[in-house]
């Protein structure tokens, strides 16, 4: 039985909405796609239709007020996955969006096939982060590592392979991509991820990525 999805696109540019709707229908011909042009309309529709499978939310449309809109939507409708869609590709903004509850971040510059992959990832219950942006060096490193990062002692608990998996996680790679790059089975990656979360004392992949973002993995992989 083919799943039928219901998705909401919230963006103030009609051409962007149309392009995203076409991307969705290319992958899911039977999908119901709703389009709105501002944050208030997106919030109202979420209140009327809590069975939405996904909301694609423009970061800079009227009513959003940056990530404030995302926080409000997540607080009022925590069961509906929300992905931020934006022309912005700053790594820190991407991480902030995910820390505020976004299930992913899709740059508007992403090629159509990658955008389809991103939407599919989220609909399957995963988090999508743009790999190219996540690999970019941080422009701002003012965040104190002591407040959000892992200690050297915590990182030394990880095996070499677990450190490699964690490094690939911080690049926004899915389990399938990590398995490919490390030449191991996807089930093995899942086992490593579970061990990483347990050893580092975090409860989610997002928490691990945020806290490991500034780590110089080369230091720990020398051993």
TrEMBL record:
Tell me the PROSITE patterns matching this sequence. Answer: HTH_LUXR_1, HTH_LUXR_2, RESPONSE_REGULATORY
Q: Which domain of life is it from?
A: Bacteria
Q: Where is the HTH luxR-type domain?
A: 151-216
The keyword Protein transport is annotated on this UniProt entry: no
Post-translational modification 4-aspartylphosphate, affected residues: 58
Task: Please verify whether the record's keywords include Coiled coil.
Answer: no
Tell me the Pfam families matching this sequence.
GerE, Response_reg
Q: Could you tell me which residue ranges the Response regulatory domain spans?
A: 6-123
Under the heading SUPFAM superfamilies, the entry gives:
C-terminal effector domain of the bipartite response regulators, CheY-like
Q: Which UniProt keywords apply?
A: DNA-binding, Phosphoprotein
Q: InterPro entries given for it?
A: CheY-like_superfamily, EvgA-like, NreC/VraR/RcsB-like_REC, Sig_transdc_resp-reg_C-effctor, Sig_transdc_resp-reg_receiver, Tscrpt_reg_LuxR_C, WH-like_DNA-bd_sf
PANTHER family (alphabetical): HTH-TYPE TRANSCRIPTIONAL REGULATOR YHJB-RELATED (PTHR45566:SF1)
**Which named protein is this?**
Glycerol metabolism activator
């Amino acid at each position: 039985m083919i799943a039928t999805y219901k998705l909401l696109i919230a963006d103030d540019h009609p051409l962007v909405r149309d392009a995203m709707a076409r991307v969705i229908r290319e992958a899911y011909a039977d999908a119901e796609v709703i389009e709105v042009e501002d944050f208030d309309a997106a919030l109202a529709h979420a209140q009327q239709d809590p069975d939405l499978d996904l909301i694609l939310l423009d970061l800079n449309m009227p009513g959003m007020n940056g990530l404030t809109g995302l926080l409000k939507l997540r607080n009022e409708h925590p069961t509906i996955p929300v992905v931020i869609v934006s022309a912005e590709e700053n790594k820190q903004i991407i991480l902030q969006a995910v820390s505020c509850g976004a299930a992913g971040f899709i740059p508007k510059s992403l090629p159509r096939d990658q955008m389809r992959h991103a939407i599919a990832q989220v609909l399957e219950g995963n988090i999508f982060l743009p790999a190219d942006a996540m690999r970019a060096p941080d422009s701002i490193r003012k965040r104190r590592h002591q407040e959000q990062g892992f200690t050297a002692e915590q990182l030394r608990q990880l095996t070499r392979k677990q450190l490699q998996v964690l490094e690939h996680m911080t690049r926004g790679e899915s389990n399938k991509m990590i398995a490919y790059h490390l030449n191991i089975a996807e089930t093995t990656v899942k086992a490593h991820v579970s061990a990483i979360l347990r050893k580092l004392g975090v409860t989610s992949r997002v928490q691990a990525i945020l806290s490991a973002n500034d780590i110089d993995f080369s230091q720990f992989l020398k051993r």
